[in-house]
Specification:
Elements: H1 27-51, H2 55-87
Helix pairs in contact: 1-2
Length: 97
């Protein structure tokens, strides 16, 4: 389903579905950055108050964790959104009469 880390392939390799017609967009990215940001900030506060590590240790801990968590969950969220668009036959906005 994916041609790269986050890019969809043009067609599904299993069933041949044309994925190019779907528009997942950047909605999942914004939601995941906010959600993971809140989790990481809470964890960073707990670590700071419990252990008081130097600032560079925070950088070494939280930047890679945030990046991996967002990229991994972005693949899941984009796949879920594509499946929802397919299931509900979502398309461009149109007037229904």
């Amino acid at each position: 389903m994916f041609a790269g880390v986050l890019r969809f392939a043009d067609r599904c390799s299993a069933c041949g579905l044309s994925i190019a017609g779907f528009n997942v967009g950047d909605g999942p990215a914004a939601l995941l950055v906010l959600a993971w940001g809140a989790i990481v900030v809470a964890l960073a506060i707990v670590v700071e108050l419990s252990f008081s590590p130097p600032w560079w240790l925070h950088v070494l801990l939280w930047v890679p964790l945030s990046t991996v968590a967002i990229v991994w969950s972005l693949r899941v969220a984009k796949g879920w959104l594509l499946a929802a668009e397919y299931r509900h036959a979502a398309g461009e906005g149109r007037l229904v009469q």
